Amino acid sequence: xxxxxxxxxxxxxxxxxxxxxxxxxxxxxxxxxxxxxxxxxxxxxxxxxxxxxxxxxxxxxxxxxxxxxxxxxxxxxxxxxxxxxxxxxxxxxxxxxxxxxxxxxxxxxxxxxxxxxxxxxxxxxxxxxxxxxxxxxxxxxxxxxxxxxxxxxxxxxxxxxxxxxxxxxxxxxxxxxxxxxxxxxxxxxxxxxxxxxxxxxxxxxxxxxxxxxxxxxxxxxxxxxxx
Length: 227
Fold this sequence. Notes:
mainly alpha
């Protein structure tokens, strides 16, 4: 195997995935701003970012195949390629979830008064963004502490989703004339929770290719273990 060529190809793959992650982060920033004060170009801006994410998705898939075909990576390198391929898919799905949120907000723009924005939705968006950023930092730095932090944050996001659903159900009972507004916020919360689930998948894949441990169903691993 051409070690130098393989290392360069792997580094290029790392950079492409990090760039794709930064695009998802941009989408979440846009969503946070749109939640606070809807802009007419909100959906258009998020869809433009999603187009870039989709292009990256295909390019990274192709690079993974080319790297395996050309260099036949073994052991840790092969784990990393497989993990990046899975992370690539999770980032693409995050882009889809952000698009869904943008369309929901577009439908809500006439109904959502300022007092109705004082719900856990804004906090959920911030937490989802923190999970994505922390997962990307863990990937770039190889930091297992940050990877496990994402897993812990996912529990918080799940609780916030549950709180949002409960609150919206109460509001529906109190004001049935605004069922659409409250149901839409439930759909928003569920899409944001899915973004957190995908960020958790990123963290689990990072732990996998750094340690060789599959923690999807096993909980936390020994952080001192070497690959």
